[in-house]
């Protein structure tokens, strides 16, 4: 499992060159008193305009890409590597994968979950969604569509089936 959001956090940990560059670009106001990244403050700055978001991505994305490559290389030859990547469509990466799975929920459900379950500010959530690909673009690259606007148990049952009926055979077919 290679989680892009986890790698995105690692490249901005205290003491990293990534964090130093972010402070040069966005100012010391994106740090807490202890010198740790204030993620909410950086999110406010980065999602204020396309230009600011791209400035952050120019710092993070090359570093995330390098860490991703390293993680892929460490996988066992018979592993099914699951790459959890929010910006797959935006970065035009679909052709690199054997199977593209889109995990979906309607926009209003996404907003409600992130506000209620994660405590995020609603305008932050909406700005992030606005900076992402829309459903039509996601549909265009999806091999499998997982609708999560259902009870979690139903979603998990579908994912189990996806694993045994689609992903394990796809891995075998690559050998
Ligand atoms: C702005 C930051 C500090 C906000 O941190 P926060 O802890 O609030 O969010 P987290 O990193 O957990 O991301 C949660 C979700 O926000 C969305 N999101 C994050 N970055 C972006 C982006 N550049 N464009 C669109 N949506 C984004 C994604 O849906 C992601 O799954 C952080 O998201 C970040 O460093 N983003 C730039 C790196 C990046 O593009 N990450 C996406 C994975 S490659
Ligand atoms: N079927 C469901 N019912 C209720 N809540 C759900 C369901 N599926 C996901 N959630 C909740 O929705 C929120 C977002 O889910 P999750 O973090 O898995 O999204 P994600 O696909 O990783 O998004 P991104 O990759 O953009 O960060 C979480 O708080 C999660 O618990």
From TrEMBL:
Catalytic reaction annotation: 3'-dephospho-CoA + ATP = ADP + CoA + H(+)
Localization: Cytoplasm
Gene3D superfamilies listed in its UniProt record: P-loop containing nucleotide triphosphate hydrolases
Top EC class for this record: transferase
Pathway(s) where this gene product acts: Cofactor biosynthesis; coenzyme A biosynthesis; CoA from (R)-pantothenate: step 5/5
Main location as per UniProt: cytoplasm
EC annotation from Swiss-Prot or TrEMBL: 2.7.1.24
Pfam families noted in UniProt: CoaE (PF01121)
Domain of life: Bacteria
Keywords: ATP-binding, Coenzyme A biosynthesis, Cytoplasm, Kinase, Nucleotide-binding, Transferase
InterPro entries documented for this protein: Depp_CoAkinase, P-loop_NTPase
Family that this chain belongs to: Belongs to the CoaE family.
The protein's role, per its UniProt record: Catalyzes the phosphorylation of the 3'-hydroxyl group of dephosphocoenzyme A to form coenzyme A.
The name this protein goes by in its record: Dephospho-CoA kinase
The gene coding this protein: coaE
């Amino acid at each position: 499992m290679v989680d892009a959001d986890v790698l995105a956090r690692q490249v901005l940990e205290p003491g990293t060159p990534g964090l130093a560059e972010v402070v040069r670009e966005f100012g010391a106001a994106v740090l807490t008193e202890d010198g740790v990244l204030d993620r909410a403050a950086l999110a406010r700055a980065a999602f204020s305009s396309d230009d600011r978001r791209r400035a952050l991505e120019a710092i993070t994305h090359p570093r995330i890409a390098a860490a991703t490559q390293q993680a892929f290389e460490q996988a066992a030859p018979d592993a099914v590597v699951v790459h959890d990547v929010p910006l797959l469509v935006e970065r035009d990466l679909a052709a690199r994968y054997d199977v593209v799975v889109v995990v979906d929920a309607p926009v209003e459900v996404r907003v409600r979950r992130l506000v209620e379950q994660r405590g995020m500010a609603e305008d932050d959530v909406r700005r992030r969604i606005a900076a992402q690909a829309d459903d039509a673009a996601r549909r265009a690259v999806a091999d499998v569509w997982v609708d999560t606007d259902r009870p979690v148990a139903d979603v998990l049952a579908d994912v189990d089936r996806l694993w045994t009926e689609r992903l394990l055979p796809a891995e075998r077919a690559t050998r």
